[in-house]
Each structure stands twice: as C-alpha cells, then as structure tokens.
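Most newcomers find our protein records easier to grasp once they have seen one. Nothing more is needed to start thinking about how sequence determines fold. Here is such a record, shown just as it appears in the course material:
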Amino acid sequence: MDEQATVPGLRAAVEGFLNEFKAFQGEVKVSLQQQDDRMTMLDRKTTHHGRPVLTGAVDNGAPHRKAFDAYLRSGDDEGLRGLVLEGKALSTTVAADGGFLVDRDTAETIRSLLLSTASLRAVASVVEVEAASFDVLIDRSEVGSGWATEATATGETATPLLDRIQIQLHELSAMPKASQRLLDDSAFDVEGWLAGKIAQRFQRAEAAAFVTGDGVDKPRGFLTTPKVANGVWAWGSLGYVPTGAAADFAAVNAADCIINLVYALGAEYRANAAFVMNSKTAGAVRKMKDADGRFLWSDGLAAGEPARLMGYPVQVCEDMPDIAAGAHAIAFGDFRAGYTIAERPDLRILRDPFSAKPHVLFYASKRVGGDVTDFAAIKLLRIAVS
C-alpha cells in the first residue's frame, strides 16, 4: 500500500516540475525575443547613421573611400548611392550625368600636386567659387586729399575709380586610362594613381593657359595682355623694359636690364614680387654678375626654398618664351595681386569601361579660369633694343 501511494505522488511531483520548467522556458523565450527586438532596432539605427556598434571612434572617411574605390575598380556605385540616400555629411554625390564628385582626400591630393609643380599657381592668387564666374573689384586710384585750415572751407576731393574684372570659369578635363586587370589587383592604389595622373594632365594644361591662354574656352594668360613700353604704360596693359639688344641680353652690362625691370615695378608691389621665367632663360640669367663681380642669382638656403635673383624668388614656368627677338622672356611682379586663378572646388570623375577595352577610361573634369586683375602689379622684360 505504501509503494502504491508513493508512485502517484512522485508522478504528480514530476508533472509539476515539468510544468514549471515549461513556464520558465516561455519566460526565457519572451525575454530573448524582447532583447533581439531591441538589438535589431539598435542595429537599424546604427546602420542608418553609419556608425560601428562596438567602438567609440568615428571614421567618416573610411566608408566614403571604400565606396569610391569600388566605383573606380568595378563601376559599382551602390556604395556611393547608399551614402547619398542615407544623408551622410560627405562630399560625394551622384551627378545627373552619371559622374561622381571626387572624395575630399583625393581632391586635396590633386590640389597639392598642382601647387607643387612648376606653375603660376605657386605665386598667383587662387580662390574657390561656386558660381560660373568670379568678379574682382580693383581700386586703381586714390581718394583725393588736401590740407585744410580752420577758416577755409574744405572742397570736394576726387572720388576713387573702381574697375570690375570678370573671370569666366572654363572646363578643364583629363582622361587617363588603366587596364581592368591592373584595377582588379587589390594591392594597386587606384586613388593614388588616379590623383597623380589627373594632376599631371591638369598641370600641363593649366600652366600653359595661365601664361599664354587666349581666353577662349580657357583662362586668359598674362602674356596675352596688351604690352607697351613702361614709359607710356596705362591701365589695361602691361609695361615692359628692353634688354638693350635685338635678340639677347646686352653684351656689356647685361645685368642692367634686370635692375631696370625690378625698379620699373612700384614700391608697393616689390615686397611680394617674384620673377617668372623658363629654365633656358634661368640658365642665362644665373651667369650674370653685378659691377663688383658678384652673381645676381643665389640658390635657396634650405630644401624646398626657391632660387633668388636680386633677393626675389624665382618661379620657373616652362611655358614662358625663350630668349628671342621680341620675346617677353621674364616677368617680374606681385602675382598674388596681379593674377587671379578662380576654380570650383568640385572635381568630377566619369568611369568608361567600354570605349577602350580592355582598358578603363576615367574622364576627369573641373572648372577653372584666370586673368590679370591688377595691370600695375606685373612688369615684363622684352628682348629688344628699345
């Protein structure tokens, strides 16, 4: 009797334990589901804002650069489109014509390479604009003044004259190409290669336009400005001084024309002035000596410093003309005041894998313009008797 009474009691105890365990399992499942729901919501928020879950560091550039790199390698623009649709504060956007604006790091690399090359950029004024043109207002006169006494009425003085110079922006383009196999190589730095190629092409085109451009679909170079003898100089032209010989520097006292060029420039401009010439002209000028036998030319004292002529820096621009009859082989002036380069900050890339198979073409374009903005700030040396 005792054993028979024990069995039902044991069965009831086991059933009670199983029921309690099932209830516990249900509570655990509900708790886990609630935790999953919270984690899913957190993941969505984290993904939406593009931030990693388990780190406090914010890397705004990495997703952008990865997306841009994927576009250059394979044309995959999903990453770029995703960055735009999520509203991230990045500089890459989808253009209406299928091109993409280059990421900030690559654009800054290109600008640095352009600045470090032998171009007028190194000495001119460079401004970034968002419009199709850039207006420069020049005050080319002074406010009149005079001495006044206590008893004498003050008369009206002269009003300053303002000139408005409009610099139109023109499209500059380059189209380097690379084989698809090279782009597929994960060890290949696509961004670095592309930045170097674009900067190289842009530098060649810009450097020539800033010196000799005619202003038609390109910047207007300072040497295309009307030129007159400095003694009869007037606003709207550049003044020149002669070398004293028909096709070269004078045989006697050759350095005198360099001195004349320096002091033809107004004193207010000389403090920030620089010489601009090509390598052949620099080779001839660095042999010149003053009356005491001292060289006018001196090399930079530290790495990266420009050479100096009569104490003023020398910018070598290969697009300056060689020494020849009638050529304006040397320019001297305050180019930050005298010549302005205006450009838009955006640089656009269009990937073309079809036109040059098995190569991929990269059509890069930007808008840039340039013009003389102060005709008194630049003087020229003319290879001529007078």
